[in-house]
Write a structure and sequence with these properties.
The chain is mainly beta. It has one helix and 17 strands. InterPro entries: AL/BT2_dom.
Length: about 250
C-alpha cells in the first residue's frame, strides 16, 4: 500500500506553472486510485456486511455476566427479543472495543409502572464506563441529564425523541474512545454522537469521565472495553444489536 508521501510526489511532479508563478493543475493531478476502498454491502433491516452482530435473536454466545466473565449472560430470550431478567445483573460483550459505530434497538415495557427513573430504566455502557441512558420518556418528567438519550448525569439530549410505551426505539452511536499516554494521563477525551429514532440527540459530545450516579465523573485510564447492558430491575427489551469497529 502506497503512503501519502507517494501521492504528494505524484501531484507535485505532475504540476506546471503559469508565467506569473501560479500553479496550473490538470484534473489527473488530484486523482488517485490507491489504496482501494473496502466494499461494505447493506440492506434494509440488516447489519452491514462488516458488522459484528452482537445479538440477532438466536442466543447470547457473545455475551457474559458483567460481574463474572466466567458466567453466562442470564437474560431472557423469546421471539428473538432479549429481555432484562431483573436481579441477574448487567451483561457485557465478551469482546472489548475502542472506537466504533453501534446500533441497538430497545423498548420500554408497555405496562406503565412507576415514574421518573423508575419507568423502563436501563442503559448502554460504552467500554463499560460511559452510559447512554435508556428510559421511558413519554410524559414522564425526570432530571433532563438522566432521560433517554442523555449521556447519564453529564449531558442531556438536544431534543427528546419520545415514543409511546411498548414501541421500539433505535440508537445509532458513533463513539471515539478517550486516549491515555503511558503514564495514564488522559491526552484526549472521548466523544459520542447519538441518533435516537433518526434524530441527533448528542452531537460530538465530549465525555468528561465515568457516568456516576453519585458524585462527579472520574477519569480512569483504560484501553478497549465492552458494551454493557444494564439490569435496573425493569423489563426493558433489546433486539438487533450490531457494531462496526472504526
Amino acid at each position: 500500500m502506497r503512503n501519502k508521501s507517494y501521492f504528494l510526489t505524484v501531484v507535485l511532479t505532475g504540476l506546471s506553472l503559469y508565467g506569473n508563478g501560479q500553479t496550473k493543475f490538470q484534473p489527473q493531478d488530484t486523482e488517485f486510485y490507491e489504496p482501494k476502498i473496502r466494499t461494505v454491502t447493506t440492506s434494509d433491516n440488516q447489519a452491514p456486511s462488516d458488522a459484528i452482530v452482537l445479538f440477532n435473536g438466536t442466543g447470547l454466545s457473545l455475551w457474559c455476566s458483567a460481574n463474572d466473565s466466567t458466567k453466562e449472560a442470564n437474560w431472557h430470550i423469546e421471539n428473538k427479543i432479549l429481555q432484562v431478567k431483573p436481579g441477574t445483573g448487567n451483561i457485557r460483550t465478551k469482546e472489548n472495543f475502542e472506537d466504533f459505530q453501534l446500533h441497538i434497538e430497545w423498548k420500554s415495557p408497555e405496562a406503565i409502572k412507576g415514574e421518573g427513573q423508575g419507568r423502563g430504566n436501563s442503559g448502554v455502557f460504552l467500554q463499560g464506563y460511559y452510559e447512554i441512558q435508556v428510559l421511558d420518556n413519554n410524559k414522564n418528567p425526570t432530571y433532563v441529564n438522566g432521560q433517554a438519550g442523555s449521556l447519564y448525569k453529564q449531558q442531556p439530549p438536544l431534543v427528546s425523541a419520545v415514543k409511546n410505551p411498548g414501541e421500539w426505539h433505535s440508537y445509532d452511536m458513533i463513539y471515539t474512545a478517550p486516549r491515555y499516554n503511558r503514564d495514564g494521563i488522559r491526552i484526549r477525551k472521548g466523544s459520542i454522537t447519538v441518533i435516537h429514532n433518526g434524530v441527533v440527540v448528542q452531537y460530538n459530545t465530549e465525555i468528561a469521565g465515568t457516568t456516576e450516579y453519585i458524585g462527579m465523573p472520574r477519569v480512569i485510564p483504560h484501553g478497549a472495553g465492552p458494551i454493557v447492558l444494564q439490569d435496573h430491575g425493569d423489563l426493558v427489551q433489546f433486539r438487533n444489536i450490531w457494531l462496526r469497529k472504526l
